[in-house]
Amino acid sequence: MIRRRKEPGDVKSRFYETIEARGVKYVKATPSMILSGSLIGERVYFRDRVSQKPRVVTRRKNPLLGTPEQEFYTIIKTEKGITIGFPSVALVRMGEEISVYGLQSDEKQVVADIIEGEEMVFEIQD
Question: What is the Cα–Cα distance from 13 to 106, expressed in whole angstroms?
Fold first, then answer.
């Protein structure tokens, strides 16, 4: 369940509204806030539309390199120019509006913990 609320004692909530998902606080951001780089290193929540076909990259099992099983990574580009990385498979369509919860790693990239599509929710469990 996702709860939306402001935390009066939290430093971030003095400036930004926060959203809580799975017990983790995310700053509610717009794509322009993410592109400005002001939230690098922060957990962010935003909505945007998928602009290109998502790309799923697979790394094969290789015991010599220490990869015990196959690994998947999904790369999604949005209309506003943000690249979303998701360390698993996320089946979203081009043109679909998505909600993303994740960590902003640089000016144009967010590593997602949760992606909510129109029909499915994709989530990484700790």
Answer: 21
